Structure formats: C-alpha cells, structure tokens
C-alpha cells in the first residue's frame, strides 16, 4: 500500500521552491464546464457525465479514487467533481505549496493527511467548513476523527481514513515459544526476553524512520506534544520531553540495547524481507497495515495463515488509551471561489456505501465514516490476511471508537525529522531516551521560535 509509505517520508517545506504547476482548477479549457474555482475542467482524469452542472476540482491519490468520483458524480444532482492525481505525499504537497505562494493553481478540494492540516491552515490555504455542512455530517464520524481534522474550534477537513493501532503478530512464533498476546508493554518486554532466551527472533522493531509511530506511543503513555489555538497564532505549546515521552524512549531504547527488538528502518525491502522470513514476532502498526503488507508480498506463499492481530499493549491496563497512526481528509482550499459547493463535494466523496465497501473489502483504507464502522459486513469481516480472524470486530473498530484525537502542530514534519535524528542516536547508543527527548524539545522549540512563535 504505497500511499502509506509516503506518509512517513513526505517532507513539506513551509516555503517550497517555486516550480511550474498547471492545476486542473486553473487550466481553463475552451468550452469545458466552469469550476467552483473559476477555471475550466478540461483536463480531468475522469469523464464528467452531467455537463450542465457546476464542477469542483479535486486532487486525490487513493487507488480507487476513479470509482469514488464516478459514484459521486452519478449520484449528485448539484455538482460534479473533476479529479486529478498530481502525486501523493511530498509530490502533492510541493505542488500545493507552490500554488499557495502563487495565489493560484490550487484545486477546490485537496486530499491531505491529517497531520499536515495545520501546516497549510496557518498559511490561510484551507477553509473552515464548519458552516458548510458540518452539522449535518457531524454524526457520521467519531469525536477523535473530527479532532484530528480540526485546529482549535475550526474544522478544516472531512475525515476519510484512519489508522487505529494494534499489534500484528506471527502465530507460528507465538505458538513455538508458548507466548500469549501481551496486554501491557511490561508483558511485551517479558515475552521478548523469553523468546530471546530461547534463541528466537527479535520480538519487534524500533525504527528511526517512523516518528509518527513513536509519537503515538508517547501519547498513549500520556504525552501531549503540542497545544495550539489558531486564535493565538503566534503562540504554541511544545512539550516533547515530559516524563511520558522520556519513559517511552527509554523503554524502546532498552529493548533495542538488550537485543530484544530490531532497529531496521521500516518500509524498506530489507524490513519486509524480515517480516516475510519470520525475523520479527510482532509488528506494531495501524489498521492500514494488512493492505500495505499484502501489497508488499507478506502473507503469501509459505507466509499464508501465519498472522493474527491483537489489541495494542497498554502502559496501564486499568486505563487503556487507544492511539492512531496515519489518516487522510478532504479539505477545501481557500482558492475555491465557491467553498460551499466545494464542501458539498468534500462531504459527499467516500460517503456512499459502494465506495466505502469497495475501500475496505480491497483493504485500500480503514474508513472513518460510521456508516462503514457500524456495518455488520465490515465489523464481522473475516480478514484473509489474518487467516479468517474477525480483526475489525475484535481489535480495530473498538480501537477506532475509543480514539480521542490529538492536536497536531504547524511544523509537524520538522518535529518528525528531529525525532528521527534523536531516535537514530538512541539506537546507536550515544544518548539515553531521556536525553533524546530533551534534544528533540530543544531542537523543535528553537525552530518554533525561529518561525515567529512564542513557545509555551
């Protein structure tokens, strides 16, 4: 599932280099339909069936976007969508940044990862859609999903998919070493020691290139990395070296030092080869992982039927906290000349049963629309990757329902890069977990001040 790989490597420069961009919304084409942003819709990837209706331009990257857009256009009698895939991750974000700097070239609606919303919101590139249909759609998504697309009280996106986290594990390895799925991180460490002492494989992996995962585990422990209110745009709370953050880095640093987990960068051929060959007993990841792993060749051939999933281990079993890794939304851009019409498309895309069902049956997304999460077919689905286990019912849906959301920062990528640098040092043994957290705090706070923020 290539889109997910880009989630962890995409870098969005706040001041991107100016590169040429011809966007669907600005490339006016002769006698084509008029778009909500004022341009023509002559270079759509899709064919617009109802040419007498106004057109909303959109950038999106999911593999089944063609089906989703066609479904929307077929069902809608007020507006049509002109869809273009300009790339994903940094490819799309660089183009969007260029259009922001130029003041033209952006689409009406853009698919954007939730943790990137504040980066563009602070540049006034996105529209608060709270007055354009939010009240009618509010009940369609959970509290946590809405929080992830919000900045303060304003809403800057319609949730599409998410990544409630869990622990994927190898049944054959657990059976061989008589291990039961650990319910706490203390039990996880104990199981890792048992397997190592018996000459078994690494119990998991602590990688430097998955800072979003590290952040999620720190939040699970009680960390609140950022506090930000757009009503006070020049002020931000940065708290990256609290005790919870230090404890999590110390924990994983210890497991790595003791050889209980590997330290291979994830989303690489080497890592995937290790997963296929049983080098790791567990994979701490999100609900999109089965689709990604299947696409990468895991769970096939000799691997078939060897994987299962269990709830994410907890720091405190008596007070469980569910966290999320990844997720996308449809946002309305400030260059749209008809944000109300654009919002109608954003709320309507990936909201019909056929599109949602196609998404989850093909493991393209883990939907956040409650129409899907409450669908008995989805809840009771026997997942092939997990040898017929009802993973949604047992693990992912409860985790999604219990997730409360987080506050992202306007410079999330810089934070992730700073975390990667210090986790690399932690893995190398040149710093402790606590020292790594202190260095991340110092680095990110300094950067925030350089960007004109007062750091709280």
UniProtKB/TrEMBL annotation:
The keyword Signal applies. SUPFAM superfamilies: Periplasmic binding protein-like II. It comes from the Bacteria. PROSITE patterns: PROKAR_LIPOPROTEIN (PS51257). Keywords: Signal. Residues 1-25 form the signal peptide. PANTHER family: ARABINOSE-BINDING PROTEIN-RELATED, BLR3389 PROTEIN. This is Carbohydrate ABC transporter substrate-binding protein (CUT1 family). The lineage of its organism: Bacteria, Bacillati, Actinomycetota, Actinomycetes, Streptosporangiales.
